TrEMBL record:
PANTHER family: GLYCOSYLTRANSFERASE (PTHR12526). This is Glycosyltransferase involved in cell wall biosynthesis. Residues 15-156 form the Glycosyltransferase subfamily 4-like N-terminal domain. The lineage of its organism: Bacteria, Pseudomonadati, Pseudomonadota, Betaproteobacteria, Burkholderiales. It comes from the Bacteria. Gene3D superfamilies: Glycogen Phosphorylase B (3.40.50.2000). InterPro entries: Glyco_trans_4-like_N. Signal peptide: none annotated. GO terms for molecular function: glycosyltransferase activity. Keywords: Transferase.
């Protein structure tokens, strides 16, 4: 097959959507397919080239003023490459691919990575729509995506080419006992809840240290909250780290306190390193933790419950050891090869249902309307 992956950028900034796309492109090229990634670029071009994936600069932006240039660039790319499949990972790319021409010779596959966004409904313009967890599939069906055009391929990072052959760094050396999260500094990631839980936890485990690995627009507000709660000296804002495995490998407890989470890739990484994990029972997180067998699930936006779970694992050695032992079990389903195989099967089914390259035109009235808040 000839495959084009579309995303706004390919920057190495810890963006899970980009990481999934890069893994897919590399695995699909390894399987013998012709693969192009079209984006504004970033830091993965060398990796893509090593795997035989061609990167084409195609800036994608929701700004109306950029639409003519984006459409023209996409049309040129399609005319030159004549793809079988265009796979859009973000809303802008999906719209460009769907409406750049009245007739087309490719199928459009879209992936819903962030169902919580109102614009996620627009991903329904694909000939086939992929959800990254069962929870996302249920939500998208509720928004009007027909079940026959909806499939689930769970995210996974085990065996990622992004880290292949790269040893785990020996630094930094973390203080113990320590709690680690790897997350963007966004309010929706529950960083505020984690800081409040940490303030409560220190009454029970006064020598605990919290490491926040990641960056984002709410970092300053979170640093101010740590000061207000009196835990700034015990909280380490580490910023973005391209390869956080050194932090994961040393964490006494890994935590993900998200308010919304379609299927956090970092949970696979934490499980692979055999960490004790605490995470919120929201979105696709329970699926990533085998329903609670591979990690403790707590209610969302509940710092007290979060503090209790963290405190239990930091003070009960048997409970901690048992959870660490369960974390790395049954990880095959989160392998990048399984993810790639799942998408390739969807491409083939979608192409077969539209043969001979004759595609049904979806009118605007059939599009799902974004839910009102």
């Amino acid at each position: 097959m000839k495959i084009i992956h579309l995303a706004n950028h390919a920057r190495c900034i810890g963006n899970g959507i980009v990481n999934v796309m890069i893994d897919l492109a590399c695995l699909q090229a390894r399987a013998g397919h012709e693969v192009i990634v079209a984006s504004a670029g970033g830091g993965f071009e060398e990796l893509l080239a090593r795997h035989g994936v061609r990167h084409v600069v195609l800036p994608q932006s929701p700004k109306p003023s950029r639409v003519p240039a984006m459409v023209a660039g996409f049309r040129r790319l399609v005319a030159q490459f004549d793809p079988d499949v265009v796979h859009a990972h973000m809303m802008t790319g999906a719209l460009i691919a769907r409406f750049s021409a009245f007739s087309r010779r490719f199928v459009l596959v879209t992936t819903v990575h962030n169902e919580f966004q109102r614009t996620a409904s627009l991903m329904g313009i694909g000939d086939h729509v992929v959800a990254v967890s069962d929870a996302v599939a249920v939500a998208m069906a509720r928004r009007g995506i027909p079940r026959e055009r909806l499939s689930v391929v769970r995210n996974g990072t085990i065996g990622t080419p992004r880290l292949a052959g790269t040893p785990v760094a020996s630094t930094p050396q973390l203080a113990h006992p320590c709690i680690v999260t790897v997350s963007g500094m966004y309010e929706r990631k529950g960083i505020g809840d984690l800081l409040n839980a940490f303030a409560l936890l220190r009454r029970r485990v006064p020598d605990a240290v919290l490491y926040l690995v990641g960056d984002g627009p709410d970092r300053a507000a979170m640093e101010a909250l740590a000061l207000t709660l009196g835990v700034a000296e015990q909280t380490r804002f580490e910023g973005f780290v391209a390869d956080p495995r050194a932090y994961l490998a040393q964490a006494d407890v890994f935590v993900l306190a998200s308010h919304y989470e379609a299927a956090g890739l970092v949970l696979c990484e934490a499980r692979e390193t055999g960490r004790a994990i605490v995470a919120t029972r929201v979105g696709g997180i329970p699926e990533m933790l085998d329903g609670g067998e591979a990690g403790v699930l707590v209610p969302v936006q509940d710092p007290v419950a979060l503090a209790d779970a963290l405190g239990h694992l930091l003070t009960d050695a048997d409970a901690h050891a048992a959870l660490c032992a369960r974390a790395p079990l049954n990880l095959d389903k989160f392998g990048v090869q399984q993810v790639s195989d799942g998408y390739l099967a969807i491409y083939e089914r979608t192409l077969a249902s539209c043969q001979p390259r004759r595609f049904a035109t979806m009118v605007t009235s059939n599009l799902a309307v974004p839910e009102k808040s």
